[in-house]
């Protein structure tokens, strides 16, 4: 049987330390509850996919995450000096565990769906890698077949810039990595991103149920501080 894993990158839920750019226009308390909704909705979207491994930051927060999300997940500290090294090391770790293919996702795409994850795995049936581009020039998902993976694919990238996706594609082309592309999605990093999400949902766009609840609370002029159900 082909074994599949999903690597989830997340931060511990600490007020003022998650989605900090959102706090330029929204309160830290609201941003924390929004982030918690994003995380829980992401995990629900992944519930019917491969084995889930949660790679967290910062150090020393495993107990905090277990108390919040439960002990049904495996928690691992992210290792590396930048996001590229941390992602590369997570893939190395997962493939050492014996998985044949793995996806890595973040927790700031509230419109991520189970169907999209299934499409990513489908792409790996015929490709070496799969990428989900985000509207800010980065990507929200990246995945590899074990036989095609190399840590070198994360070298020489200008992380946290609009060049990430293009630079990654150039590296894959140079290494003759066959990749599939998913549909473009939207990270929620800034107040403008948040407002755009509200408008998409108003027009029928789909987001996780917890995100829907907190958006409704925001629109109604109050915050429900218990949006995230384990």
From TrEMBL:
Cited InterPro entries: Nucleotide-diphossugar_trans, Trfase_1_rSAM/seldom-assoc
Gene3D superfamilies per the UniProt record, alphabetical: Spore Coat Polysaccharide Biosynthesis Protein SpsA, Chain A (3.90.550.10)
Top-rank lineage group of the source organism: Bacteria
Protein name: Glycosyltransferase
Source organism: Desulfobacula phenolica
